[in-house]
Amino acid sequence: GAGVSQxxxxxxxxxxxxxxxxxxxxxxxxxxxxxxxxxxxxPEFLTYFQNEAQLDKSGLPSDRFFAERPEGSVSTxxxxxxxxxxxxxxxxxxxxxxxxxxxxxxxDGTRLSIL
Amino acid sequence: xxxxxEDPQALSIQEGENxxxxxxxxxxxxxxxxxxxxxxxxxVHLILIRSNEREKHSGRLRVTLDTSKKSSSLLITASRAxxxxxxxxxxxxxxxxxxxxxxxxxGTTLTVKP
Lengths: 115, 114
Fold this sequence. Notes:
The complex is a heterodimer of chains A (115) and B (114).
Chain A: E1 5-7, E2 10-13, E3 19-24, E4 31-37, E5 44-50, E6 53-56, E7 65-68, E8 75-79, E9 88-95, E10 105-106, E11 110-114
Parallel strand pairs in A: 2-11
Antiparallel strand pairs in A: 1-3, 3-8, 4-5, 4-9, 5-6, 7-8, 9-10, 9-11
Chain B: E1 5-7, E2 10-14, E3 19-24, E4 31-37, E5 43-50, E6 55-58, E7 61-66, E8 71-76, E9 85-92, E10 102-104, E11 108-113
Parallel strand pairs in B: 2-11
Antiparallel strand pairs in B: 1-3, 3-8, 4-5, 4-9, 6-7, 7-8, 9-10, 9-11
């Protein structure tokens, strides 16, 4: 596919379970971003990768959140011991260059519901 | 914690009318981008304007940037029902050469009635 692909599209988990969300960026894109979007709000930055290096994780809400991109392409966002406040849409975006003046290409997100 | 604030929060117009949305931000920026989001989908990039630019056009879209007022506007001319979506501004500040983070506002929800 030509776009950013995220899976699963929907995830329901019980409080306390661990979840893993996957992002396949556009091939060749250096930068990869994760955002969290609550209902009716804009995306909030979580973390940023340049190739396999995680250069900014200042937006991760707690140490229960962990992201990796081991080979510089596919990325996984893991949330351990999920809480109800983790319910949100998690968006992944990629861009071609490492600088900040490139448009970001977004996937359709994973809608996470914690019961 | 959002940098940008869009105004209005919601806008409803008739097809064919123009729609104007505004974005204000707080700190100095390197660029400002506008994105569209249809319900249940990801964001789609519309236009990027750099801090040294004042106006930019793309098809029916016109974006202005006033860095002295820390504000931007997005004008959609001759609106269509398909323009119904949420519109977000995003600002980027390059703290170093590795910076890529954009900060989004909470968006304007536009409804275009046929």
